[in-house]
Each structure stands twice: as structure tokens, then as C-alpha cells.
Amino acid sequence: MFNEKTILIVDDDPAILEMISEGLVEHQFRVITASGPEEALDKVKTASLGLALLDLDLGYQKMNGIDLGIRLLEQFPELIIVIMTGYHNIKYAIQAMREFSFHYMIKPFRIDQIISLFERASYELQLKTENQRLKEEIQMLQEEVHRLKKILKEIRPEEANLSVAAREKELRNKIKNKQALNSYQRQKG
How many domains does the chain fold into? Predict the structure, then answer.
């Protein structure tokens, strides 16, 4: 389940964890902290997350922040992930953004930068979700139109290929003709 106000922060530096956590709590975020990937995966088993701020180098040989992000996406497909690092190595930024649509921040940063990034990413996610919902709705409507055309063809094969506008025009003409005929008969009679 997606909850954009719940943030997972994973960093092997307790001072950074505390600083970021306190700053986000002040801005009404619910924060889950972990000092390593295994602890993080254990803590989020029953959580609902919307955001994750993961250190690239977690001091854990088997899993770095990108690997953890991939594992988290399996459980939370709509999760917004930001990889943070103290290194200015563009290689990791390109890998994270290209392969996994992760965002990337270089330490040190301010809390308002994190919040701004998450707000933009949340808005983007909302747009994608709305776009997907609208595509599904269009598909359903197209299927309904197809079904109705099929029914119409079975009932009145000669009218099945008429458009709605053409059918409406035809009905209006019939009504005008009937009104004209009635008017003529009243004048004559």
C-alpha cells in the first residue's frame, strides 16, 4: 500500500539517521529508520511506504542502496526511492536513474531539499497513476461501444453502421416531417 507520508531512511551513520529523521518528523512525516539493508527489509514487512531515502554505501558487502531499492520495489511497486551518497561519482547516479527511475542526492543536503524532491516525485507518481486509470477507463468505454455496436448490428443490421450523430439527424428530420404533416392536415381540415 502506498503512503506518501511514510519514509524509510537507511544509512549506516547513526548521526545522519538521527538528523534526517528529526527533520522529517518536524514536517509531519512518519519515519522508519534502519542502519542496514536486512534491518530495513525486516522493519517494512508490515509497513506501508511511499518514500525511501537510501544511502548508496551501506557498509554491507552483499547489498548497497541500489540493491536494497530493487528489493523494496518488489514489495512496494510505487515506492519513490532516493539514493544518497557522499561521493560525487556520476556513474552511480546514471545507473540508479536510468535502470530504476531512482532519484539521487549528494550529501550534505538540507531537509527541505528532500521534502521538495519527494513532493515532486509524489506529484509525478500521482499523474502516472491518474494516467493509467484514465487509460483503463478509455479501454472499458471502447469495449462497451464495441459491444453496443454488435448488439445494434444484430437488432437492426441496416442501422449498425450509422453514427450517433447521423442517427440523431435522421430522427430529427422524421420529427420535423411528422410535425409538418400534422400542421398540413390541421390546415386542410
Answer: 1
Q: Cell match 513532493: residue? A: 119
CA distance 98 to 100: 6
Residues 142 and 135: beta-carbon distance below 8 Å: no
pLDDT above 90 covers a percentage of the chain that reads 21
Nine-digit cell string for 105 = 542526492
Q: What is the largest CA-CA distance in the chain?
A: 102
pTM, rounded to two decimals:
0.64
pLDDT 10s digits, 124-139: 778 878 888 999 999 9
Per the structure, the complete domain to which residue 46 belongs is given by: 6-131
The CATH number of residue 33's host domain is 3.40.50.2300
DSSP 83: E
Q: Which of 178, 182, 26 is nearest to 114 (CA)?
A: 26
SS3 1: coil
Choice among 21-25, 49-53, 79-83, 103-107 with the minimum mean pLDDT: 103-107
C-alpha to C-alpha distance for 67 and 40, rounded to whole angstroms: 12
**What does the alpha-carbon distance between residue 116 and residue 121 come to, in Å, rounded to a whole number?**
9
Nearest to 6 by CA among 64, 78, 65, 67: 78
